Amino acid sequence: MEFRIFRTQISDRLVRERLTAMLSGFFGLLAALLAMVGLYGVISYLVARRRTEIGIRLALGARPGQVVTMVMREAVRLIVIGILIGVALALVAGRGASSLLFGLMPHDAVTLVAACVLLAGVAACASCLPALRAAKLDPMIALRHE
Questions:
Q1: Which residue from 54, 81, 141, 145 has the highest number of Cβ atoms inside 10 Å of its Cβ?
Q2: Which residues contact 2 (CB under 8 A, 6 or more apart)?
Q3: Distance CA 57, CA 63 (A)
Q4: Per-residue model confidence as pLDDT tens digits over 20-45
Q5: CB within 8 A of 139, min separation 6: which ones?
Q6: What are the residues whose beta carbons fall under 8 Å from the beta carbon of 37, sequence distance 6 or more?
Q7: Which long-range contacts (CB under 8 A, 24 or more apart) does 55-61 make?
Q8: Any residues with CB less than 8 A from the CB of 1 and at least 6 apart, and which?
């Protein structure tokens, strides 16, 4: 018989679970980064598509803050729609995966709210740069572009 410290035995048996948790955290961070890059691309595309409109607004006297508000309002609308669809899909997937979860609640409200707040924050950060770039747009260059 081999005698070992009890903590060492527990630690050795939890290596697989720790690795799984670390990989899940890594993939969660990667998903947040991909969501940020994707939303940045979508908002940048929407701003580029409305470049002439933004140029006209600025030429007619719109302040840069109004342009930022306009772009961020559109971004918030997309964020809210995405979060609503995501929560609905998460609730459906949680119901389907409830048999695979041991000791975990498939509909944990705190986790859902934390994920929504995190994604909304990431999306707001990703939307700020295109909004600020739109506010600095030179109306003459935007109008000549067409």
A1: 54
A2: none
A3: 9
A4: 889 988 998 898 889 888 888 888 89
A5: 55, 56, 58, 59
A6: 126
A7: 55/137, 55/138, 55/139, 55/140, 55/141, 55/142, 55/143, 55/145, 56/139, 56/142, 56/143, 58/137, 58/139, 58/142, 59/139, 59/140, 59/143
A8: none
Q: Calculate ∠ Cα 59-61-77, nearest 5°.
A: 95
How many other C-beta atoms can be found within 10 angstroms of the C-beta atom of residue 131?
21
pTM for the full predicted model? 0.71
Alpha helices in 1-146 (DSSP H): 6-13, 15-49, 51-59, 64-96, 109-135, 139-145
At 120, list the tokens: 């909304």
Joined tokens for residue 96:
């389907």
* Residue appearing with tokens 């006209």: 56
Share of the chain above pLDDT 70, in %: 93
Q: Which residue has the tokens 């669809």?
A: 85
Task: Read off the pLDDT of residues 92-140 as tens digits, 9 standing for 90 and up.
Answer: 888 877 777 666 777 788 888 988 898 888 888 888 888 898 888 888 8
